[in-house]
Amino acid sequence: MISVKNLCKSFEGYTAVDNLCFDIKPGEVVGFLGPNGAGKSTTMKMITGFLPPSSGDIQVCDLSFESASLKIKQKIGYLPEGAPAYGDMTPLQFLTFIARIRGFKGAEKDARIDQVVQQVELQEVMDKPIENLSKGFKRRVGLAQALIHDPEILILDEPTDGLDPNQKHQVRELIKNLAKDKIVIISTHILEEVTAVCNRVMIIAKGKLLFDDTPNALHKLSKYYGAVTLHFSYRADASELAELEGVDSMEEDLKTGRVTLFPKPGEHILHLVTAHAQRCKLPVDSLFVEQGRLDEVFRKITQEVTE
Ligand SMILES: Nc1ncnc2c1ncn2[C@@H]1O[C@H](COP(=O)(O)OP(=O)(O)OP(=O)(O)O)[C@@H](O)[C@H]1O
């Protein structure tokens, strides 16, 4: 369990983290979302013990950094932003170095290294200098060092930044497949990532916590949640759709040719829209219920404090 109370961090008078309060329980995969400079990395650095808070309290598994800094650090695996590593070492040398620091020796050390190398699929680059590796492999080396001691808590700062779509998918699968009783905190700029891997979302802007709930609750804040969007194969008169019972309003995107129908509160309009489209033989080539648009919700939530 991580318990954060009234956490603040200032840099020469500038408040980067402003009175954060939250608890995180085992099994939670938390996505930290926020614009550039929101305070995500600074918060992560304080939870890992890398930076001291200006004020406030952090407890990790009922331990505090003042009295049990080392014990806490043993429980945490941390991938800092940019996955820093010693570039002239090979992954084998780097992971051996980290494993020793984490207290592993002999056969146990070798077994831990083998396990993480397989987990993040580093086999083919183990003897190449890290500085010569692609971004994706560098990031995987960073993940491997964070996982080497099988920590209870994993803190990953932008783990998929700069990866290609296949590599992003692999890292997300890896995070999803981690033991279900771990705490995982990831920071990301990719809104879809939170729905892909997280079961809790925190949105931070200007150091303040603005949203803390499930990805589904975030989707529900979108004005598009539950709306029905159609596309016609050629231009057609959609005005009667706006008159259907249960439809509150209609939005037409002239660029894409898409028509979106917004339901009245509490109404489900899919069956009405499909029935009308069939009856009037509208040339519909796609029709779907919107899950909510995260970019719109993110803008709405963060604009209030950034304006
Ligand atoms: N060591 C430092 N000294 C001075 N200011 C700092 C320091 N570290 C962070 N800041 C400032 O604190 C604010 C929060 O930075 P932080 O890196 O935590 O944001 P972030 O949400 O992780 O941003 P990004 O998404 O761009 O990585 C920024 O304005 C940043 O410039």
Describe the structure.
- This protein folds into two domains: 2-220, 3-Layer(aba) Sandwich (Rossmann fold), CATH 3.40.50; 228-290, Alpha-Beta Plaits, CATH 3.30.70.100.
- It has eleven helices and 14 strands.
- The longest helix is centred in the middle third of the chain and has 15 residues, at 106-120.
- It is elongated and about 75 Å long.
- With 307 residues, it is of the alpha/beta class.
- A six-stranded mixed beta sheet has the order 6-7-8-3-9-10, with helices on both faces. A four-stranded antiparallel beta sheet has the order 2-1-4-5.
- Adenosine-5'-triphosphate (ATP) is lined by residues 11, 16, 34, 36-42, 81.
Task: Detail the topology: elements first, then pairings.
Blueprint: E1 2-11, E2 14-24, E3 29-33, H1 40-47, E4 55-60, E5 63-64, H2 65-75, E6 76-79, H3 91-101, H4 106-120, H5 135-147, E7 153-157, H6 165-177, E8 183-188, H7 191-197, E9 200-205, E10 208-213, H8 215-220, E11 228-232, H9 239-242, E12 247-253, E13 258-263, H10 270-279, E14 284-289, H11 294-306
Parallel strand pairs: 3-8, 3-9, 6-7, 7-8
Antiparallel strand pairs: 1-2, 1-4, 4-5, 9-10, 11-13, 11-14, 12-13
Helix pairs in contact: 3-4, 4-5
Bound molecules: adenosine-5'-triphosphate.
Family: Belongs to the ABC transporter superfamily.
Protein name: ABC transporter ATP-binding protein
Keywords: ATP-binding, Nodulation, Nucleotide-binding, Transport
